[in-house]
Specification:
The protein is an alpha/beta fold and 292 residues long. It contains 12 helices and 10 strands. Helix 3 packs parallel to helix 4, helix 4 runs parallel beside helix 6 and helix 11 packs across helix 12.
Length: 292
């Protein structure tokens, strides 16, 4: 159910608030182009700067608009276990198919603290849970041995692995059961990860190139490895340029250039892209055939 190219969708803003019509339009753009699932309120959705009311509303909008056509994995993580439980309870009530929970950030818990955090959420809310490991943002890494422990909890079904280490990815896959889903959290590692047993990607790039990222995964799982590999290398400049500045500023700039959102507005402390990098981004988008 949770495999292929799953988009970590942006939260479009308009005059300081959530652009609900814009968000619904983005959901339709994704579904029309073969995306395998949608994650609202992840890092790309600017969850750290959404109020709780806004966070819940974004999840509700995406679930309403998706209407069961593809899975919705709601971002519900927090550095507070109680807050994570509350957000996850709301996601289940709203009808999400699963929840994506980031490792508690800033607190720098021990491996035992990480385990108990996810264990508590999983025991409190009966919904499939995907762990999100991104030490570059959280300041703590979930070690493979801890991931193996977490994988034994019935409703912890997978991990979005964003440590950027193929060694860690292969260690997790080798330690965990075959039905534990390992997804890339780094677009540029999507093809390599699938080659060692991963199931796809929770993707930033899918915001602007949903068909291409879906094709990359679908071709691989159809056994058309050489076609998938060639598409991966074709997309590689895009996979890199969208991270030239802090995500999601570049992807919002790209969506605005493509006419998919009205405003590339981000919330402080994030700022919109510099002009020099905007020019570089535009050239890559044009080369990829993404600008009309």
């Amino acid at each position: 159910m949770f495999s292929g190219a799953i988009v970590a969708i942006v939260t479009p803003f308009k005059a300081g608030g959530i652009d609900e019509a814009g968000l619904r339009s983005l959901v339709e753009f994704q579904i029309a182009n073969g995306t395998n699932g949608i994650v609202p309120c992840g890092t790309t959705g600017e969850s750290p700067t959404l109020s709780y009311k806004e966070h819940e509303r974004v999840v509700e909008i995406v679930i309403e608009q998706t209407a069961g056509r593809i899975p919705v994995i709601a971002g519900t993580g927090s550095n507070s276990t109680e807050e994570a439980i509350s957000l996850t309870e709301h996601a289940k009530k709203a009808g999400a198919d699963a929840a994506l929970l980031i490792t508690p950030y800033y607190n720098k818990p021990t491996q035992e603290g990480i385990y108990r955090h996810f264990e508590m959420v999983a025991k409190s809310v009966d919904i499939p849970i995907i762990v999100y490991n991104i030490p570059g943002r959280t300041a703590v890494n979930i070690e493979p041995a801890t991931m193996e422990r977490l994988s034994r909890i019935d409703n912890i079904i997978g991990v979005k692995e964003s440590a950027g280490s193929m060694k860690q990815i292969t260690d997790i896959i080798s330690l965990c059961a075959d039905d534990f889903t390992v997804l890339s959290g780094e677009d540029y590692l999507t093809f390599p990860l699938m080659c060692v047993g991963g199931k796809g990607v929770i993707s930033v790039v899918s915001n602007v190139a949903p068909r291409q990222m879906a094709d990359l995964c679908n071709l691989f799982f159809e056994g058309r490895f050489e076609e998938s590999r060639k598409l991966y290398y074709k997309l590689l400049p895009l996979l890199h340029i969208l991270f030239i500045e802090t995500n999601p500023a570049p992807v919002k700039a790209a969506l605005a250039m493509m006419g998919k959102i009205e405003s590339e507005e981000v919330r402080l402390p994030l700022v919109t892209m510099s002009e020099s990098n905007r020019e570089r981004l535009s050239k890559v988008l044009e080369a990829q055939g993404l600008l009309s």
